[in-house]
Amino acid sequence: MEGSSLRPYLERIWEAMKTSVERGLAAEGILPGGLNVARKAKLLYEKRCYNESADVTMNRVIAAYAYAVSEENADENIVVTSPTCGSCGVLPSVMYYMYKDRGFPENEILDALAVAGLVGNVIRTNASISGAECGCQAEIGSACSMTAAAVAALYKLNIDQIEYSAEIAMEHNLGLTCDPVNGLVQIPCIERNAVAAMRAITAVNLSRFLYTTRKISFDEVVATMYRTGLDMDEKYRETSHGGLAVIYSRK
Ligand code: SF4
Questions:
Q1: Which of 27, 74, 130, 150 has the most Cβ atoms closer than 10 angstroms to its Cβ?
Q2: For ligand 1, is residue 144 a contact (CB within 6 Å)?
Q3: pLDDT, tens digit, 9 for 90 and up, residues 101-122
């Protein structure tokens, strides 16, 4: 998307993201596929602990939004690939939280989504966003990176802080394997989206203070992710022949 087509496209994307969060939060029941995985977004969203601190509430609510979208994907409903279906819960969950719970206006959310898209496109062009090609680091790592950049942009941090946020978010997903149990995008994928959403915020908080001390650039970490992915044994690239997929099936 370029020029005048970009904004209406982002609006469509944002509407679809919001709908996926809200539909996922309202749904209950068992996900299809035979693993007997129950939807948990609604439970997480509503199960406030007694005396819950603001930090715990933030983590719980963002996780609930990430579960909601990822469970919608697992249930074959409409989600936004951001950048993929498997990692579709990370960016929408944090953007929805910033909009709904933090009060950021939608025009600023759209700007942040554009930044996320830019980061995703750099990764896709220079490396990969495919779990089958480079493992989960390419999916969840990319989603985490896109989300961190979007949050940093939303906070009006400078360009170095935005780039460093994306770098941190990717760096600590390096080596992450893809080993979905039974080939279903449920275990470990759904929970992983929630963890990556929270990790993206941590990356921004570190970048905010430490960006002048950094040693590794975003481009370097993207190149590293790609090389690491190409080195990765096929067992860990969406084949379900390694990792959790094998351990779980032995139980
Ligand atoms: S484990 Fe594989 S299928 Fe699941 S989110 Fe990661 S890359 Fe996608």
A1: 150
A2: no
A3: 999 999 999 999 999 999 999 9
What are 237's two structure tokens?
Answer: 């690239």
Q: Which pair of tokens denotes residue 88? A: 């579709």
pLDDT attached to residue 48: 87
pLDDT for 10: 98
Domains: count for the chain = 1
Cβ–ligand 1 contact at 189 (below 6 Å):
yes
pTM comes to 0.97
Answer whether 131 contacts ligand 1 (Cβ < 6 A): yes
CA of 184 to the centre of ligand 1 (A): 9
d(CA 115, CA 137): 20
Q: Domain of residue 16: give its range.
A: 3-250
Q: Give the pLDDT score at 93.
A: 98
Atom in ligand 1 nearest the alpha carbon of residue 131: 7
